[in-house]
Design goal:
The structure is a single chain. The protein is of the alpha+beta class. The protein has two helices and three strands, in the order βββαα. The chain is 26% helix and 15% strand. The protein is globular and about 35 Å long. The two termini are 23 Å apart.
């Protein structure tokens, strides 16, 4: 974590991480991230071995930057295009 607070879901529980914390998701591990704080947060995500995820994160950044609001069907399609799966907890 670079700044702020982000929660990581590890398939069982949510864990908060703050600046300086390191979170690990094993290959194929179920996980999700969220920011519940209401304040800005930033984190560095490293995929090793590399995975083709740049387009997914670029599209998410564009959605946020433009204020675009996606319908549930649009989110489902976006996830499917990028080999992502929605986690409902």
């Amino acid at each position: 974590m670079l700044d702020g607070t982000v929660s990581l879901y590890d398939g069982d529980t949510w864990r908060d991480a703050t600046a300086g914390d390191f979170l690990y998701v094993p290959p194929g591990g179920i996980h999700a991230f969220r920011n519940n704080s209401g304040a800005a947060a930033s984190m560095l995500v490293l995929f090793t071995p590399g995975a083709p995820r740049e387009a997914y994160f670029e599209e998410l950044a564009d959605i946020v930057a433009t204020g675009r609001q996606l319908t549930e069907d649009e989110w489902t399609e976006l996830y499917a295009r990028h080999d992502q799966y929605e986690v409902k907890i």
